Amino acid sequence: MAATKALGFVLPTGLFIQPSLNRRGGVRVSVFQCSVSSLTSTGTDFPISLFALSYNARLVLEDGSVWSAKSFGASGTRVAELVFNTSLTGYQEILTSPRLRSYAGQFVLMTNPQIGNTGVNPDDEESRQCFLAGLVIRSLSISTSNWRCMITLGDYLAERNIMGIYDLDTRAITRRLRESGSLNGVLSTDGSKTDEELLHMSRSWDIVGLDLISNVSCKSPYEWVEKTNPEWEFNTTSSHHKESYRVIAYDFGIKQNILRRLASYGCEITVVPSTWPAAEALEMNPDGILFSNGPGDPSAVPYAVETVKELLGKVPVYGICMGHQLLGQALGGKTYKMKFGHHGGNHPVCNNRTGHVEISAQNHNYAVDPASLPSGVEVTHVNLNDGSCAGLSFPAMNVMSLQYHPEASPGPHDSDNAFGEFVELMKRFKQST
């Protein structure tokens, strides 16, 4: 028994747990006691008292509601827009998604109740850093269980100065967001600030019209060569593309897995900043151009829309998420802010060309208004939850786009073949010229 290096936890019959019934304020402490029995030959018992953290944080929403919580990660006071995400797995990719660059300026509430079970590892990063303002969860796992885990979620957030709160009613908050729409809010561990002060902060801030792209884009061009790790490769047809194509990827907050999937389909990729001039992009003689995902309001970045306009018709282009919205505006359409957006890995989308339904990973607060698009632009995909536009095509200018994330991470792989469609679009254009 001694060789197991393990501890057995013996919960006594008189296990005592007394959480407060006050869910809306006040100092609450949950206490329970148990004994730990070693699995060594000594049979020694170690009495332990485990004291849960007091409710030392608050989430104050602009509708006036105040939610007491427990803090993990960093401390401080932050203001942002609160959105909910329905993904069951992949919280690390969500934390580092550049749409989590797309989540820049946002608090993310996870509807899955327990988070932190698998810890954090360096292989699942989707960008250089965390861009979200804070993480809101129901239950923080007290242990991690994953062979790749290198650090706990709480320590990971603390190192990156990201706030997290837990032990609050995330179901009630989600219902409120679904009914009222996304709400601005303030996360704070500062006990000296009154609820009224935090409420004023939440009502004085607005994400609409903010250029969030400039803070998350790369500062200079770089080459990307890494493909999807063979251990994780799920689409064996991606390696069948023998001919390579040179792609310029505009970084509006690009996810690394988008780049890995493009590389796996045989693309040679140069990533350029969001402000890269169209003329210089064309001088690099690309076979195609990708407009990536990114955070915020497409109407707040008119310089990006102008760049897209200058590139239309010159080479095949592919827009993802923010790139899709920028293409919609560049083609003459309009975008609008959604009630609470799409955030999760389980959104059904109908591919109008095939009639097939794809389960997709989505993360956006804005959408293209299909009624505003000029003739010739085809709506290729529709979100089946609300009928919103989820994909576009304009054959006359070799344009394709998706509102959601074909690379997923986290999420299903139903739409991965869209990368192959982009390769075929570049192939046909190259043959015609």
From TrEMBL:
<dbReference type="GO" id="GO:0005951">
    <property type="term" value="C:carbamoyl-phosphate synthase complex"/>
</dbReference>
<keyword id="KW-0315">Glutamine amidotransferase</keyword>
<comment type="pathway">
    <text>Amino-acid biosynthesis; L-arginine biosynthesis; carbamoyl phosphate from bicarbonate: step 1/1.</text>
</comment>
<keyword id="KW-0028">Amino-acid biosynthesis</keyword>
<dbReference type="InterPro" id="IPR017926">
    <property type="entry name" value="GATASE"/>
</dbReference>
<keyword id="KW-0067">ATP-binding</keyword>
<keyword id="KW-0547">Nucleotide-binding</keyword>
<dbReference type="GO" id="GO:0006207">
    <property type="term" value="P:'de novo' pyrimidine nucleobase biosynthetic process"/>
</dbReference>
<comment type="similarity">
    <text>Belongs to the CarA family.</text>
</comment>
<comment type="subunit">
    <text>Heterodimer composed of 2 chains; the small (or glutamine) chain promotes the hydrolysis of glutamine to ammonia, which is used by the large (or ammonia) chain to synthesize carbamoyl phosphate.</text>
</comment>
<dbReference type="InterPro" id="IPR006274">
    <property type="entry name" value="CarbamoylP_synth_ssu"/>
</dbReference>
<comment type="pathway">
    <text>Pyrimidine metabolism; UMP biosynthesis via de novo pathway; (S)-dihydroorotate from bicarbonate: step 1/3.</text>
</comment>
<dbReference type="GO" id="GO:0005524">
    <property type="term" value="F:ATP binding"/>
</dbReference>
<dbReference type="GO" id="GO:0006526">
    <property type="term" value="P:L-arginine biosynthetic process"/>
</dbReference>
<keyword id="KW-0665">Pyrimidine biosynthesis</keyword>
<dbReference type="InterPro" id="IPR029062">
    <property type="entry name" value="Class_I_gatase-like"/>
</dbReference>
<dbReference type="Pfam" id="PF00988">
    <property type="entry name" value="CPSase_sm_chain"/>
</dbReference>
<dbReference type="GO" id="GO:0004088">
    <property type="term" value="F:carbamoyl-phosphate synthase (glutamine-hydrolyzing) activity"/>
</dbReference>
<dbReference type="InterPro" id="IPR035686">
    <property type="entry name" value="CPSase_GATase1"/>
</dbReference>
<dbReference type="InterPro" id="IPR036480">
    <property type="entry name" value="CarbP_synth_ssu_N_sf"/>
</dbReference>
<keyword id="KW-0436">Ligase</keyword>
<protein>
    <recommendedName>
        <fullName>Carbamoyl phosphate synthase small chain, chloroplastic</fullName>
        <ecNumber>6.3.5.5</ecNumber>
    </recommendedName>
</protein>
<comment type="function">
    <text>Small subunit of the arginine-specific carbamoyl phosphate synthase (CPSase). CPSase catalyzes the formation of carbamoyl phosphate from the ammonia moiety of glutamine, carbonate, and phosphate donated by ATP, the first step of the arginine biosynthetic pathway. The small subunit (glutamine amidotransferase) binds and cleaves glutamine to supply the large subunit with the substrate ammonia.</text>
</comment>
<feature type="domain" description="Carbamoyl-phosphate synthase small subunit N-terminal">
    <location>
        <begin position="55"/>
        <end position="188"/>
    </location>
</feature>
<dbReference type="GO" id="GO:0006221">
    <property type="term" value="P:pyrimidine nucleotide biosynthetic process"/>
</dbReference>
<dbReference type="GO" id="GO:0006541">
    <property type="term" value="P:glutamine metabolic process"/>
</dbReference>
<keyword id="KW-0055">Arginine biosynthesis</keyword>
<dbReference type="Pfam" id="PF00117">
    <property type="entry name" value="GATase"/>
</dbReference>
<dbReference type="InterPro" id="IPR002474">
    <property type="entry name" value="CarbamoylP_synth_ssu_N"/>
</dbReference>
